[in-house]
Amino acid sequence: MVNHNGRCSGTFSDRNFVAQCNAEAAQLNARKAQLIAEVETGRQMKQGLEERIQGLSQGTLEWAQKVKAHNGKLEDLNGRRQVFLNRINAVLEDLKTRERISVSCVGMADLESAHRCLQRVWDGAK
Question: What value does the mean pLDDT of the chain take?
């Protein structure tokens, strides 16, 4: 373009030279318009990508918040499950203990003594 402006600036009497300069100017102007259009296309693509990035970032933040909330709920449920399992194990151990203690009541000849023995076992007296 600098070369064109240097060669074609001014007034010339040679019509062929003027036609050549005008044709070259038309080509340069067409290329300029093409470059401007490419820049605009690039700007629009950039804007679209930035909008997508913003949307994805927001989606990622929302997803992370949901994961955090679900993890908290899972921890709570696992804690409650463990408490429940501990209680079940305690009940089972208590039943095993009572069963061992009640074995001592089996050999009692007198029904009333056996009744009192078993009553102590099941009332929790150890």
Answer: 87
